[in-house]
UniProtKB/TrEMBL annotation:
<feature type="domain" description="HD-GYP">
    <location>
        <begin position="215"/>
        <end position="409"/>
    </location>
</feature>
<feature type="transmembrane region" description="Helical">
    <location>
        <begin position="192"/>
        <end position="209"/>
    </location>
</feature>
<keyword id="KW-0472">Membrane</keyword>
<feature type="transmembrane region" description="Helical">
    <location>
        <begin position="53"/>
        <end position="76"/>
    </location>
</feature>
<keyword id="KW-0812">Transmembrane</keyword>
<dbReference type="InterPro" id="IPR003607">
    <property type="entry name" value="HD/PDEase_dom"/>
</dbReference>
<dbReference type="Pfam" id="PF13487">
    <property type="entry name" value="HD_5"/>
</dbReference>
<dbReference type="InterPro" id="IPR037522">
    <property type="entry name" value="HD_GYP_dom"/>
</dbReference>
<feature type="transmembrane region" description="Helical">
    <location>
        <begin position="88"/>
        <end position="109"/>
    </location>
</feature>
<protein>
    <submittedName>
        <fullName>HD domain-containing protein</fullName>
    </submittedName>
</protein>
<feature type="transmembrane region" description="Helical">
    <location>
        <begin position="129"/>
        <end position="151"/>
    </location>
</feature>
<keyword id="KW-1133">Transmembrane helix</keyword>
<feature type="transmembrane region" description="Helical">
    <location>
        <begin position="163"/>
        <end position="186"/>
    </location>
</feature>
<dbReference type="InterPro" id="IPR052020">
    <property type="entry name" value="Cyclic_di-GMP/3'3'-cGAMP_PDE"/>
</dbReference>
<feature type="region of interest" description="Disordered">
    <location>
        <begin position="407"/>
        <end position="456"/>
    </location>
</feature>
<feature type="compositionally biased region" description="Basic and acidic residues">
    <location>
        <begin position="427"/>
        <end position="439"/>
    </location>
</feature>
């Protein structure tokens, strides 16, 4: 494919067919630099692929043959360890994408950007480059689909569509930066020096986003470790934190929580019960839910969780929700007896998600259908729960339709296995009820009606 389009592009150039080493070589070096700078698993971001920008600019500056050489050189000289067939495939695809983009550009433009006057940069170079870049992006997605089909038998169009969605707005960013690169290269006649003004800031952004992504991965690993420690201490709770976090995420969208607030909520939902690891030695077993010793000990787990996590900067915004996820809207909860909207919104969301999961999964009781669980939670709107958050739960359930909202613990293949691994007394070594069950909250409220006062 690359060879065919290079031949076509070479004939389109006619008498102007040539390769300028002073243009091709700097672009090839910049393309290689972009490939080496690339980092995996950065998550959603805009415009961090230097190699994509260089290849986009190359189709306008050096045409199909030059762009093919730039793409092929960058991936052939990639020093990272990889299989030979992977290296050759990447190099061939980069060459083909560059060649196709170059031909499309020449079909719409009067010639290479280095050979014509860009009196109207947007029309003379911008529009042809936009169409060429669109063709390049489409070819890239289809190629990924074809490879997935060859290796795993996946549906080509399905994989290609997913690839396009993954690229998202980033591909538009590559186009815009590539166009600016071309204009600066040709207009003020800066040549390769234009990379300092266009690619320099892009490299800095790439580095910054890469560091941020690395920090996020480390944060996620830390949270995962804490959750694993909690589930190791109480195998019956396996999956509970993840289910509560998933449901809290969905309610957050309905309640217009986004950005940092949504991230803090997710961390808090995943870690809301981490304090149980600290207070578990104090919890009596084989007692009734109104046992004062049990109620007193269990009411200390939110503050214990805050003590465990305090000092981790990335969790600072999650601590208030962890501390107050067992407060009640009527002020009869713990540990501080907060009331109404003085309770952090994230804590009010987790309280509802926590209770719903306790009602619908096999934690330490008999699970009930979702309709019955919702009715139970609705009956507590204004007393135990924030009515607005209860409405958000109802909206989540209505949107989910017949599909499960969260993975039920009873259906989780890992939970029973971990319980068996912990020994036959795994369930007997804990109370016969779930402390998140609304009835236990009522028992606590009746035992200690005065807000903010807890028996030591």
């Amino acid at each position: 494919m690359a060879g065919g389009f290079c031949w076509w592009g070479w004939h389109l150039l006619g008498e102007g067919a040539r390769l300028e080493p002073g243009v091709v070589l700097p672009l090839a070096v910049l393309g290689l630099g972009g490939v080496l700078l690339r980092e995996r698993n950065l998550g959603p971001h805009l415009g961090v692929s230097v190699s994509s920008v260089v290849l986009a600019a190359a189709v306008a500056l050096v045409g199909p043959v030059g762009a093919a050489l730039v793409g092929m050189f960058a991936y052939l000289c990639d020093v990272r360890q990889q299989r030979l067939r992977t290296r050759l495939f990447n190099a061939a695809m980069a060459a083909a994408i560059g060649a196709v983009g170059g031909v499309v550009y020449l079909l719409l433009a009067d010639g290479l950007a280095t050979d014509v006057e860009l009196d109207r940069p947007l029309l003379d170079a911008g529009l042809p480059l936009a169409v060429a870049h669109g063709a390049m992006t489409l070819l890239n997605a289809v190629s990924i689909g074809l490879m997935a089909n060859a290796v795993r038998g996946s549906h080509v169009l399905t994989v290609a569509g997913e690839a396009l969605r993954t690229l998202g707005w980033g591909t538009l960013t590559h186009l815009v930066v590539g166009f600016l690169f071309v204009v600066l290269w040709v207009g003020p006649d800066l040549g390769a020096l234009s990379a300092l003004f266009v690619l320099g800031p892009l490299v800095v952004a790439h580095w910054s986003i890469g560091r941020e992504a690395l920090a996020r991965r480390e944060h996620q690993e830390t949270v995962t470790t804490f959750v694993a420690a909690l589930e190791e201490a109480d195998p019956v709770s396996v999956g509970h934190s993840a289910r509560v976090a998933d449901l809290a995420d969905r309610m957050a969208g309905i309640l217009d929580l986004g950005g940092q607030q949504a991230e803090d909520l997710r961390y808090a939902a995943l870690l809301h019960d981490i304090g149980l690891v600290a207070v578990r030695p104090e919890l009596p077993t084989d007692v009734e839910p109104d046992d004062i010793a049990y109620l007193s000990a269990i009411s200390g787990h939110p503050e214990a969780g805050v003590a465990v996590l305090k000092g981790m900067d990335f969790l600072t915004g999650a601590l208030p929700a962890i501390a107050h996820h067992h407060e009640r809207f009527d002020g009869r909860g713990y540990p501080a007896g907060l009331e109404g909207e003085t309770i952090p919104l994230a804590a009010r969301i987790i309280a509802v998600a926590d209770a719903y999961d306790a009602l619908t999964t096999d934690g330490a009781g008999t699970p009930v259908p979702r309709e019955e669980a919702l009715a139970e939670i609705r009956s507590r709107a204004g007393t135990q729960f924030d009515p607005q958050v209860v409405d958000a739960l109802a909206e989540v359930l209505s949107r989910a339709g017949a599909q499960p909202v969260v993975e039920e613990a009873a259906a989780d293949p890992h939970a029973p296995e971990q319980v068996r691994a912990a020994g036959p007394d795994a369930r007997a070594a804990r109370p016969r009820w779930d402390h998140d069950h609304p009835s236990v909250s009522d028992t606590f409220a009746e035992w200690q009606p005065d807000p903010g006062v807890r028996v030591p």
